[in-house]
Amino acid sequence: MAGASVRDIRLDLFRGLALWFIFLDHIPTNIVSWLTVRNYGFSDATEIFVFISGYTAVIAYSRMMEQEGWTRAAARIYRRVWQLYVAHILLFVAFSAQIAWVSIARDTPTLIEEMELLGLGQNPYRAILEAALLKFRPVNLDVLPLYIVLLAAFPLVLPLVVRWPFAVIAASVGLYAATCHYNWNLPAYPDEKVWYFNPMAWQVVFHVGAACAVLGPKLAWLDRFRGLLTTLAIAFILFAAFISLSWHYNPLERLVPHWVGRLIYPIDKTNIDVLRFLHFLAVAWLVRLAVPIDAPSLRWPIWQPLRRCGEASLLIFCIGTFLALSGQVIVGYYEDSILSQIIVSIGGIAIMCLAAYLAAWSKGGGPSASARRRPLAEAYK
Fold first, then answer.
1. How far from chain centre, in Å, is Cα 60?
2. Which of 179, 186, 215, 225 has its CA 20 to 30 A from that of 204?
3. Residue 52, CA distances (Å) to 8, 18, 59, 343 in order
4. Tens of pLDDT, residues 132-144
């Protein structure tokens, strides 16, 4: 039920895990990124983050809409959109300054081109305008704009998904199919570019997450087919792992029949290829079975850093994005040594955890105490 009174700590835990994975994956040639899901399947941490964002959006605002009306809930959603927008602009400024400083200090002008910031130097006034419109972004700054657009449209979706979740899923899948067929996308800057994460395609992950939050226990009817669904999920995950590993190991690549390659490639991330989405759903199904909401292990102290990072997701995402570039520079300075990759990865995650604990402390008494004192809508922001 969307208005459940118990906080599902799995959401914080897996959102925190997604943020760690995004940080590790954004450091090129990082050996520690082999611990993330990216190298073992078609989907990665982005699907986790977007799905949970849709799920928590319903939890956060459906009860407010029930109690205070749609206008109040919409106002709170747009306040959150504004917070995300301000965070993105500040991150854009800090990230661009970081790239410029490293490029000048180390005399590596190619870094500006590599991070897709040439437009800022070639036409600064136009680039600043396009950045304000979310159309101009350096590498790795694509997730927040996607989230901003999805959440900005959410006030229109919220009353529909609460009443007719299956209809919303059907409409969302229809828009996704049309987007992939007609290759719709939003324009970006420079003029020949489009959004790396196409909101008209990625909305399907967000809205399926939102619908799952509404359906809640009703999804238990799927357990009647648990054996079949679990078998299919495991088979598909193993297939995806084999294909993904074949991208890194030539002996495995030679084992992939040519007709399979012609059938599945390209596995597009911009429009979230159907194989990516199915892979995420297969993983989510197995996680649902393996980690029920009342699992005692969820409260083990070892998971607390992940949960804290998930609770402060916006802050941790921004810090992780900034640290990923710092890690890339440090690893490059040490010629991509394995030791530097490990130290940078552990150090970055430690900084993210410290920031999450400080954020909890600054709210007074930590997240659990804060959640008790605040409405559920505030706790899931």
1. 18
2. 225
3. 11, 10, 11, 29
4. 999 999 999 999 9
Which of 338 and 375 is assigned the larger pLDDT? Answer: 338
Is the Cα dihedral 240, 245, 246, 252 positive or negative? negative
381 pLDDT higher than 70: no
- The mean of the pLDDT values for the chain is 92
Q: Count other C-beta atoms under 10 Å from residue 31's C-beta.
A: 17
Task: Read off the pLDDT of residues 237-291 as tens digits, 9 standing for 90 and up.
Answer: 999 999 999 999 989 999 999 999 999 999 999 999 999 999 999 999 999 999 9
Distance CA 316, CA 179 (A): 31
3-state SS string for the chain: CCCCCCCCHHHHHHHHHHHHHHHHHCCCCCHHHHHCHHHHCCCCHHHHHHHHHHHHHHHHHHHHHHHHCHHHHHHHHHHHHHHHHHHHHHHHHHHHHHHHHHHHHCCCCHHHHHCCCHHHHHCHHHHHHHHHCCCCCCCCCCHHHHHHHHHHCHHHHHHHHHHCHHHHHHHHHHHHHHHHHHCCCCECCCCCCECCCCHHHHHHHHHHHHHHHHHHHHHHHHHHHHHHHHHHHHHHHHHHHHHHHHCCCHHHHCCCCHHHHHHHCCCCCCCCCHHHHHHHHHHHHHHHHHCCCCCHHHHCHHHHHHHHHHHCHHHHHHHHHHHHHHHHHHHHHCCCCHHHHHHHHHHHHHHHHHHHHHHHHHCCCHHHHHHHHCCHHHHCC
Question: Does residue 349 register a pLDDT over 90?
Answer: yes
Confidence of residue 371 (pLDDT cuts 50, 70, 90): very low
